[in-house]
Amino acid sequence: MCMQHLLNAMYEAVNDSVILHIPKTAKCILDIGCGSGNLGREIKSRINCEVVGVTYSESEANAASAFLDRVLIKDLNYFDTQELGQFDCIICSHILEHLYHPEDLLIKLRRNLATNGVLIIALPNTLHWKQRLEFLKGNFKYTDGGVMDRTHFRFFDWNTSVELVSSSGFKVLFCKADGYLPMPGVRRFVKSIASILDRLVSKFAPGLFGVQFIIVASI
Fold it and tell me: What percent of the chain has pLDDT over 90?
């Protein structure tokens, strides 16, 4: 997917950056905030595993049940995760920003992660360059999607994203930003160079050019 469209498409698209970090040996995966099950369906097509999903929406649960092995309808703000058991991999892709106290859920999920398991988190970058321009113009407007989605209760930058995970008792193994260098009108003519530049700016200035942050952690 073209990175410029990631902000608007994130809620419906399969997050490939998350899937790339799932261990191939994972047999049981928990998808927190599974939505309609698109991410879990793609995972199951690539890895021989069981995927359990959790969502607050009955309609999403009905859709996800067609693809996932089990789907629970829960309010994640108050969910007691103890009933879930343990998993080789737990995914929280663009869901923690929707919670009142995401650190509370992460602390609970520690007991659900197997000893050698991994937690994979994806968070939108509130201080992406495009959003910074909006702030500079004095615009702090909620929208129906993207960084300023009106259902977001918490906002994160590069540093606070990592702090959220580490302060919840996890050991951060890896973190990166997915982003792009703005090249309007030029990108399609220099695709190979643009791809290299995208990787460089995402690595050396993740807080400015990153659209989303990917964090991999363990207990």
Answer: 79
Examine the pLDDT at 8 and tell me if it is beyond 50: no
Q: Which two three-digit tokens encode residue 61?
A: 């649960």
Number of Cβ atoms within 10 Å of the Cβ of 15 = 21
Asked if 216 and 173 touch (Cβ cutoff 8 Å), the reply is yes
Gap between the Cα atoms of 157 and 155, Å rounded: 7
Token code pair at residue 59: 């309609």
Domains of the chain: 3-218 (3.40.50.150)
Q: Is 28 helix (H, G, I), strand (E, B) or coil?
A: strand
Provide the 3-class DSSP secondary structure of residue 55: strand
User: Are 86 and 117 spatial neighbours (Cβ–Cβ below 8 Å)?
Assistant: yes
DSSP 8-class letter at 151:
T
d(Cα 182, Cα 218) in Å, to the nearest integer? 34
Evaluate the CA torsion angle 77, 127, 149, 58 in order and state its sign.
negative
Task: Please give the model's pTM, rounded to 2 decimal places.
Answer: 0.90
DSSP 142: -
Residue 152 and residue 87: Cα distance in Å, rounded?
Answer: 27
- Region for 174 from its dihedrals, namely left if φ exceeds 0, alpha if ψ lies in -120 to 50, beta otherwise: beta
CB 97 within 8 A of CB 153: yes
